[in-house]
Amino acid sequence: MIPQLVTYRQRRRDGRWLRLYVPVLPVLLVLSPLLLLIVLAGLVACLVFRVSPVDALRGTGQLLCALPGTRFEIEHGRTSVLVSVR
Question: To pair with 32 at 20 to 30 A between CA atoms, which of 3, 42, 43, 83?
Answer without folding.
Answer: 83
